[in-house]
């Protein structure tokens, strides 16, 4: 048991780390806040003075704002739906005893180790290219007109690419949860005459509840700031401009740091709303 | 004891290496990963041997390079002693006093030999701020065999109407041959470079003399409609994702009848090691509509020195070396005349050996027909042929490019895209205080 003395010593020793971490977060945050109230245009000579709430008003009233929020939410929602549905399925499959299980598991989690930029490039050039892509050859082989994926269904294509990347993560977490399920319970249900589907709905799925909320929470945090896949594939065209991408455009392409910073503050607010909302659900789920 | 000794040794080593670094003067250069620049890096040792100045390279993809050097210069980061920049950045940065003026280059360098169009685009108020490493315009590259099979003959300076007819005649979608490949990928340096140059030939322009955006004019409407119809009839599928590199690869695979793009591409499409159609490529001037302007652009990749660098003299020495006549000679001796950096110096086009290169004359003609001060049929308040050299341009044009790319993909109508473009440009220009 810790004494009063050792506790204060621990606090003292923790202080540098805490201060460092706080500074790490606070300094960029405060700078973003500061810049969002300035007319800061690097190519026009830098900081041109106080701007009040102009940047905030301009960012929200711009015709690009609401579409970008919508795109962000569709992207996050789409990827979550796909990765969780397929993740549960894959977890159940991988849990079955089979020959070469180790190799199959490695293959399933492999996409997670590919860098986002690389995977986006591979998908764009090797699979989805309407002339030279593998899918185009496949379509032609069956006598169909190839699909120009990234222009005809751009958002769905990006959801697909991102889902491919995040599926291993969801699968891994869900697989661990499936493995922790008590098999006697399932056997008992089977003996009582429960069909596979109702066993799944009434025993497995509720058991996976916690794991699913964790997947939702972690993935949402990362997916809200998704960038590389969009940069590489469509460059934000065809309605694939997310909030993060819009901020990037404002700061780096339009060289308007003030406007972009105001966007950054909105993004922080949005992320916090989502986080609070999710934490409450997770909290409920984890307390049970 | 041993720890102490190790620490001493490390300190001594650090001191030694720091001292070694301090003795050697060395410059850091940021550049773009284009073939000619990569080649230049291969010859750096010759420069170091000549002058004793070491060179460190930071080689980046075009978009990344732009962001890195722009960030570095606006924040006065001082990471680089030489930056590879283009005709868009140079006049703006020169006006801001961010670049070292290059008005005192040595007599043997012969600055007057730089092509006037290039020097003009890389100057502000008549002072040169970056030296062109290579320059380019755009032109038509076409398949002579397909043209012959279609029973047509390419004039030296074709009209858009002829290009349309020829493209349709050459298209054979079942065999994956598309009459014309054009840029469709969104971006101010991608589809907007092409479309801006094209609209110049249709009588359009970016801004009128009061800086009012012009996307609500007939000229732009004709441009965009013609472009989209042409691409739908005779372009490759998924064209709205194709930029320079994608089209280059399509052309090299023999899938394009015509390709209107940068003149530097000529050496890639005629290189038998890279191109399956190397022996049947012809060249013509970029198309026009008879209004006196061709749809060709003007660009230079140039080397500039950020103001405030400690190595100004060394940096100047390098720039003189890399953009000199001797460098051209060096590359020609080692790799043949077709591979020298084109478009920067008049004397290159007077060299008899270079005149035999198949695309040399058309490149020079294309460069000479582009005028950055009078790019459009009507007068304009900006400098630049396929862009307007104002800080706001890149941001606006990228968004406008996305609208036009979406129209090409069939997601919006050309009219809607133009309306949106007008709104975006007006909104940004108003906010910028024009």
Automatic annotation (TrEMBL), chain A:
It is a multi-pass membrane protein. The keyword Ligase does not apply. Keywords: Cell membrane, Membrane, Plasmid, Transmembrane, Transmembrane helix, Transport. The chain crosses the membrane at residues 12-37, 73-94, 106-123, 155-178, 211-238, 258-282. GO terms for cellular component: plasma membrane. The keyword DNA repair does not apply. It is found in: Cell membrane. SUPFAM superfamilies: MetI-like. Its main location: membrane. InterPro entries: ABC_transporter_permease, MetI-like, MetI-like_sf. Belongs to the binding-protein-dependent transport system permease family. This is Sorbitol ABC transporter membrane proteinmannitol ABC transporter membrane protein. It comes from Salipiger abyssi.
TrEMBL record, chain B:
The keyword 4Fe-4S does not apply. GO terms for cellular component: periplasmic space. Residues 1-22 form the signal peptide. Pfam families: SBP_bac_1 (PF01547). Keywords: Plasmid, Signal. It is found in: Periplasm. InterPro entries: Bact_solute-bd_prot1, SBP. Belongs to the bacterial solute-binding protein 1 family. This is Mannitol-binding proteinsorbitol-binding protein. The lineage of its organism: Bacteria, Pseudomonadati, Pseudomonadota, Alphaproteobacteria, Rhodobacterales.
